């Protein structure tokens, strides 16, 4: 019989998590996680250090066993079919292990061999080139960032249906962070679903259509990235042709005057609906108007202050 606790495999879902729990001794790392990611999505998984992001991803790939709850990847149970799941997914762990005496090329060929001929070597070369990764260098001489690039290439090399990435841009300089995000966008355009954890709000904001925020082992929010930023405070800077009386502006619902410079220049903050303030401005001699949306970072901070 179908119950509300059953995770039904569905063709539209890349990830289905229901009631996932995991404790390490007394530490309750996951306290009942529910999350669904649709096929074709780029999904950001945000949370501070120790929130449970890595534990969630490891449970998904059956690298550790949860204490309770269920997870399905691409409709498959990773505990029952780990090989099938791993063949169709790409994974970038937080800390990759390499053979120090290998060159980058030998290490990547090693990863490629494990993929049983499903890797097109030319594509590996393209990925390495996009990331300015020199195949001839020895692993032991690589910087942290260059090691991270090998991890990114091995996750993408077999063009998986689903990518699970634990902080993919960790250790990379801003230019390379951007390039990795470009590669992810490209993979997504080619049909790959992407689930990635991150601390960097701006990169999540730039690529992910939806985000989940995890805090102390619990999902505190799942939302479209755009709605998360839209729903909070907007900042407005208005320049007037001549000094105005601001009484009517400050009495509008949700409006708070932040600064006022001689009556000509006003900065205000609007919570919620913008319509009343726009109407009130309509009767004033507005010269110029600028609006500023809060960044995901600001939104994220408000969650943590709650
Ligand atoms: P970060 O952003 O720092 O990587 P995270 O969100 O990935 O953090 P997890 O690594 O999943 O968080 O850790 C969740 C909690 O479980 C933390 O309190 C952590 O200390 C604890 N934990 C994780 N792995 C182990 C382990 N092997 N043994 C004991 N405790 C662990």
Fold topology:
Blueprint: E1 13-24, E2 27-38, E3 42-46, H1 53-60, E4 68-73, H2 82-88, E5 89-92, H3 104-114, H4 121-130, H5 144-156, E6 162-166, H6 174-189, E7 193-198, H7 201-207, E8 210-215, E9 218-224, H8 225-230, E10 234-240, H9 247-250, E11 255-261, E12 265-270, H10 275-282, E13 286-292, H11 296-305
The chain binds adenosine-5'-triphosphate.
Entry summary:
The protein is of the alpha/beta class. The protein has 11 helices and 13 strands.
Description:
The protein has 306 residues and is an alpha/beta fold. It contains eleven helices and 13 strands. It has helices spanning 53-60, 82-88, 104-114, 121-130, 144-156, 174-189, 201-207, 225-230, 247-250, 275-282, 296-305; strands at residues 13-24, 27-38, 42-46, 68-73, 89-92, 162-166, 193-198, 210-215, 218-224, 234-240, 255-261, 265-270, 286-292. The strands form three sheets. It has a six-stranded mixed β-sheet with strand order 5-6-7-3-8-9, sandwiched between helices. Strands 11-12-10-13 form a four-stranded antiparallel β-sheet, covered by helices on one side. Adenosine-5'-triphosphate is lined by residues 24, 27, 29, 47, 49-55, 94.
